[in-house]
Amino acid sequence: MELLGHLADGFATAFEPLNLALVMIGCLVGLFVGAMPGLGSVNGVAILLPVTFFVPPTGAVIFLAAIYYGAMYGGAISSIMLGIPGASTAVATTFDGRPLAIKGEADRALVAAAVASFAGGTISVVLFTLFAPPLADFALKFGPPEEFALMMLAFATFIGLGGDDIPKTMFSILVGLVLSTVGLDIISGNPRLIFFDLPGFYKGISFLVLAIGIYGIGEMLWTIDSSRGDVKIAQHNVTFQRIMDSLRALKRSIRTMVLSSGLGYFVGILPAAGATPGSLMAYGMTKSMSKNPENFGKGEVNGVVAPEAANNAASTGSMLPMLTLGIPGSPTTAILLGGMIIWGLEPGPLLFIEAEEFVWGLISSLYAANLFTLLINLAFIPVFIWVLKMPFTILAPIIFVLCVVGGYAPSTNMHDVWLILIFGAAGYLLRKLNYPMAPAVLAIVLGPLAEKSFRQTMIGEQGNVLVFFERPLSAIFMVLAVALFVYPLYLGRKRKKQRAAEAAATEDGA
Amino acid sequence: MIALSRRSLALGLAVGAGIGLLSLPQAAQAAWKPKKPVEFVIMAGQGGGADRLARLIQSIIEKNDFSNQPFIPINKGGGSGAEALRYMVDKAGDPHVIMATLNSLYTTPLRNPDMGVDITTFTPIARLAEDTFVLWVNAESDIKSVDDYVKAVKAEGPSNWKMGGTGTGQEDSLVTAMLEKAYGIEHTYVPFKGGGTVAKNLVGNHINSTVNNPSEQLGFYEAGKSRPLAAFLPERLDVFKDVPTFKELGQDLVYYMQRSVVGPPEMPAEAQAFYEGVFQKVHESAEWKEYTSKKALFRSWLTGDELMSYFSEERDKHAELLKAMGEIQ
Q1: B34-131+257-325: CATH architecture
Q2: Range in A27-31, A270-274, A291-295, B305-309 the model is least confident about
Q3: B219 and A349 in contact by Cβ < 8 A?
Q4: Do B72 and A190 touch (CB under 8 A)?
Q5: Helix ranges, chain B (H)
Q6: Domain B134-231 has CATH 3.40.50.1100
């Protein structure tokens, strides 16, 4: 009950006129920043940091939280509309969001993204309110072996991601893993795979570069090729009725929303993981649990719901390690951390006791921001749809320019732009050969995390590989991972048998 | 193609003319100011001592309006800061990039001579502070003193005692090597990406000890989760009045980490002067004074050529340390 009291106080603060105005402005700015590939919330928040010195600390945090949340939604918009992930957290949203838009159901995808994000935010705020202090202790139990076991679990869900063709999925994972080792080794600092001695490779290959290449450029090439330039995206007129129908249809996705939010929140509270792995894992989990896994990647609403619910839940979750351990889960929370330091707030286990008002004000404002972004998003859907009605001959150059800008802006280096173009062409060719590309993107995100935690464990345990099964938490993850890895193999064999039996039956019938 | 090259020729001429104008004496006298947001590169991961400090500095600059353009912190902590160093070399001559340094400014190029980084070519801006090191254990452990510690490490054996720290060859591993040599003990050194992660792993009991900076452990210390044993300093710290120094315990173990700011090679002199002015103001600000005394940092201001000769001296010292460790030849 005491907790609810804190939360109520927090809400009273969040709904003061000045703070309310800050929430709205923050959400709008965040939406824009999130939707522009390459702009990213890091620059957005950093440039707007001065604004926060004109208002009291609580207002400042509310403003930053609103930008953060707005950007989470914004990322989904460009993922769905243009097939370019606006932010790293929205990569998984392109997998099904874009196909839905091509089918003329962009409005459904947008509604699903907005509602799922809202659900993710809500569930995570509830979890945060009830379980924050005990979960902070739980996060401490995560050492390198647990981190590695969790990554293995994530990799195992990939196998489900690639459909039936397991060898091709493995190939795609391996390509991603190789690309993820480019650059300076985390542990020793030695350079690896610096192709042609190009200095641009020292910083490694950002996974956003790969994702923009494969999904932005690759998708554009694919659309041009498959339609011979004569693309008409049949978009239904957006009516109030259609939006209501889409909302009603989401009833079927409630289970996905709840599970993905839980998973996202859980991954979010682990230091070093964050919202991007969270959303990717939720996508993999939803697909492997679905009755119709073959629909994923072709425009399945649950494929939008899962990552969007998870990334919003994870962004609330990642506040926990920041507040209690002082370890920011994302670049944006790092800026928030900088703000906290200057306001004299020391992140650490005592923050919940010493700066109660601040913590609960932050949580309530996250929630208020969540509500506003939902409303703003639903209101703007007709505007977004109008963009899609542009002829593809106009839209394609716009996508191309956004991809190039998105590659250039974060590093201000042409190196990444060339890489995007190469990945785009390669992604298109591999797609023609039926290679699934999502696993490669996942591998480049999780590869470095897995490698680092594996090597730390091996150094600490003198090369004893069994340690992963000796520690209870990591043992659970490892067993689950092995089960998930074997299950599709078993399922594939069963299906083959079934098909053989069916074929035999039809032959008999004839 | 012809049209294109003609255009680039025209552009080149225009740029050339611009540079010509800039080099005129009266233009040079007008104080230089950044024309776009300044990239504030941090050669370490998020949440560590260097990261927190850089973000505090950013906030102080913004709050007091010390600069007309914002400073945007960017973490490039990969490969013990090699990522950041390489980035600075590639940005030679750019007046809109500066970098917050650690001692890996010396050690990383020493360990990777192929990287093509010579720190004496960097533009010195200012040394703001020197950070300190303390030996830490988890508060749940029975170890109450350095004697207990040495006994425990010897009893466990080198393969079972895990000392966590930042990248191999970085400050934490040097301090660990100094400690090992002085007491004749051995640890298994486990590298992590940043001091914040190291601190968290100590509190979670995944490692047995650390040599964190005070600022990295302070939150846990105040919550009663970690215990300082001794400081690598000649005199006791104000924040840990009860914690002895290694010097008191009869070992001459002293190590500081400089917290400085540098520009890329060939940074224009007027830009260097601008940043020096900004950091002078930071150095004198009330927020900086408060933070440094609370977090046990020594304010030690140094600029220009003196800073560069300090860098060269320290680099030579670190070369000796690394040689003694067998990290380099």
Answers
A1: 3-Layer(aba) Sandwich (3.40)
A2: A270-274
A3: yes
A4: no
A5: 2-22, 25-29, 49-64, 82-90, 104-111, 146-156, 171-183, 195-203, 214-222, 269-284, 286-294, 304-325
A6: no
